[in-house]
Design goal:
The protein is an alpha/beta fold. The protein folds into two domains: 135 residues, Aspartate Aminotransferase, domain 1, CATH 3.90.1150; 240 residues, 3-Layer(aba) Sandwich (Aspartate Aminotransferase, domain 2), CATH 3.40.640.10. 40% of the residues lie in helices and 16% in strands. The strands form three sheets. The chain has an eight-stranded mixed β-sheet with strand order 2-9-8-7-6-3-4-5, with helices on both faces. A four-stranded antiparallel β-sheet has the order 10-11-14-13. A two-stranded parallel sheet has the order 1-12. Strand 3, helix 5 and strand 4 form a beta-alpha-beta unit. Helix 4 packs across helix 5 and helix 10 crosses helix 12.
């Protein structure tokens, strides 16, 4: 009766099961994976946000498949503050970035085609691709004191069925930003093989230090057909409002065709509700206040890690350029899952083992830098003690 696309393995993994049991038993948990800003102890400008959502014009339904002009102008203004010109007519609003991916897979892929995604990576691609009957194929990120896109692995991964290369910048969870030389190489590969670029910049407002080599946004990349994704879920700490967008750029004729097709995809669902569109200009202002708090927390936790972890084994911090996560390199005397299970069962500390984020080699734990600072300090002290005692 059901489609094979939905034939999921639904058993929770061992760690999630143990977490669930521990929660149910009421034992304390030091959760170092908090990544929902609405539950991380930030002060939201509540009146401002709620007032923006209850404006009179929210009661009118006058749908535009790409989003109402005022909202698209606000997205264009967001890029202006970064010194990037984006025409509002190249902006498409979506109900979050995840929906944007699914629109793009529908736009670009036949069933069975594939898109290239980075490895390691956050785990949503597998599901998004499956739901669109698309396959994913991975290229590697490599670490040599900083993270890079392994361009040779991108070349190797391209097949005749490949339609797009997905880049996440800064990347979740490694924090790697796309660099100018990498974009140049990706543009060449995309041009040669008629591929589109899909660049997910949801964490782009969380860069730690300036770096000349970085691309601040691909929204103005015209070398190949490029879809730049972002939204207010991360940039304004407002995931509950479900608003993302796609900026389309590329050669004029190619871009125009992509926009026409996307208009029909978007028109089929008209999924972005009116109040959030009307509110968007004001949400950018309110969101800045939330973002500043998140930036402060993330930097505080990162600085704490830099000061408290030894630079060398048995436990060290991989360098990161941005985003909400930090990666701890740990001994491979046990699997990442065994370490994570032990930390949870013996000390109540919950972290992500590397394989949750598609690390192919053991030796990685991932923690959220958004965790309330006191909890973070307590949890890291436990990890440090447990790992140094045993190695
Ligand atoms: C890299 C990345 N892109 C997109 C998303 C989803 O964003 P949205 O809430 O806009 O769907 C996430 C969520 O964690 C993410 O980590």
């Amino acid at each position: 009766m059901y489609s094979s696309r939905t034939e999921w393995h639904r058993q929770p993994n061992r760690l999630s099961q143990l977490l669930h049991e521990r929660r149910r038993s009421g034992k304390p948990i030091i959760d170092l994976t908090v990544s929902n800003p609405t539950e991380a102890g930030f002060e939201y400008p509540a009146k401002e946000i709620l007032a923006s959502l209850s404006q009179d014009s929210s009661l009118r339904y006058d749908p535009d498949p790409f989003g109402i002009p005022a909202a698209r102008n606000a997205v264009s203004a967001y890029y202006s503050t970064k010194g990037i010109h984006v025409s509002p007519s190249d902006v498409i609003l979506t109900a979050g970035t995840s929906e944007a991916y699914s629109f793009l897979f529908t736009l670009l892929c036949e069933a069975g085609d594939d898109i290239l995604v980075p490895m390691p990576s956050y785990p949503l691609f597998e599901f998004l691709a499956q739901l669109s009957s698309v396959r994913i194929n991975s290229y590697n990120l490599r670490y040599d004191g900083e993270w890079h896109i392994d361009i040779d692995s991108v070349r190797r991964a391209v097949a005749s069925s490949t339609k797009a290369i997905v880049v996440v910048s800064p990347h979740n969870p490694t924090g790697m930003f796309l660099k100018k030389n990498e974009l140049k190489a990706l543009n060449e590969i995309a041009r040669q093989h008629h591929l589109a670029l899909i660049v997910d910049e949801v964490f782009s407002d969380y860069g730690f230090e300036e770096d000349e080599r970085r691309i601040s946004s691909t929204a103005a990349n015209t070398d190949v057909l490029t879809f730049t994704l972002n939204g207010i879920s991360k940039s304004c700490g407002l995931p509950q409002l479900k608003l993302g967008w796609i900026v389309v750029s590329g050669r004029d004729d190619v871009k125009t065709e992509a926009l026409h097709r996307l208009e029909i995809i978007s028109d089929t669902f008209l999924s972005v509700n009116t109040p959030v569109q009307v509110a968007l200009p004001k949400l950018f202002l309110a969101g800045e206040k939330v973002r500043k708090q998140i930036v402060g927390r993330v930097e505080q936790n990162l600085n704490f890690l830099k000061q408290s972890l030894p630079a060398n084994p048995p436990i060290s911090l991989l360098s990161t350029e941005g985003g909400w996560y930090a990666i701890l390199r740990i001994p491979t005397t046990k699997s990442d899952e065994e370490w994570a299970v032990e930390l949870l069962m013996e000390s109540g500390v919950y972290v992500f083992p590397g394989y949750f984020l598609d690390f192919q080699q053991e030796g990685h734990l991932v923690v959220s830098l958004q965790t309330p600072h006191a909890v973070f300090v307590e949890g890291i002290a436990v990890i440090l003690k447990r790992i140094t005692e045993q190695n």
